[in-house]
Structure formats: C-alpha cells, structure tokens
Design goal:
There is one protein chain. With 83 residues, the protein is mostly helical. The chain has a single domain, classed as Arc Repressor Mutant, subunit A (Orthogonal Bundle), CATH 1.10.10.60. Helices cover 72% and strands 0% of the residues. It has 5 helices and no strands. Helix 3 runs antiparallel to helix 4 and helix 3 crosses helix 5. The longest helix has 19 residues. The protein is elongated, with a radius of gyration of 14 Å. 13% of the residues are buried.
Length: 83
C-alpha cells in the first residue's frame, strides 16, 4: 500500500517531511494520527448506523481487511469494534 503521506506530499509538491511538518503546524497533529482518528470516526459511525460487516467497513474506511481494522480500533478506542 502506498503511504498516504507520500501521496499527499507529492500532490502538494513537497517532501514527505516538509508536508508532515506543515500539516502538523496547521492541524496540530501528525498526518497519520489525523488519518487514524478520521478512520475510527467513520468506522464507529458505520458500526452504529449500518448492518455492514466488519470486512466491508474496513474496506470503506481504508483498511486492507477486518483484522487490520480490529487491531487499529482496539488500539485507538480501547475496545473491540463489536463491543
């Protein structure tokens, strides 16, 4: 999988480190931390408001599979997605 920071930096015409530093100075957190928070927000919304399975939710929020989403969700939220 291509790095989201690398892709965004390329679009912005900056190096990865310059993009990350600029992003953090404007947003207040690192690009990957922001992305993780956004993905968790979307996953929680989909878990609450749809009947989609975890694999489908994982694909919609940018994870390769349900296991990857479950690990990230537990690390970020402190609970499993099914709880």
């Amino acid at each position: 999988m291509r790095s989201p920071v690398r892709s965004l930096a390329r679009v912005a015409g900056l190096s990865r480190s310059s993009f990350a530093a600029t992003f953090k100075s404007i947003i207040g957190e690192a690009p990957l931390d922001y992305l993780t928070c956004w993905r968790m927000y979307r996953a929680k919304t989909l878990l609450r408001s749809t009947d989609l399975g975890l694999y489908e939710i994982a694909a919609r929020v940018g994870y390769d599979n349900d296991t990857a989403l479950s690990r990230a969700f537990r690390r970020h939220e402190g609970i499993a997605p099914g709880e």
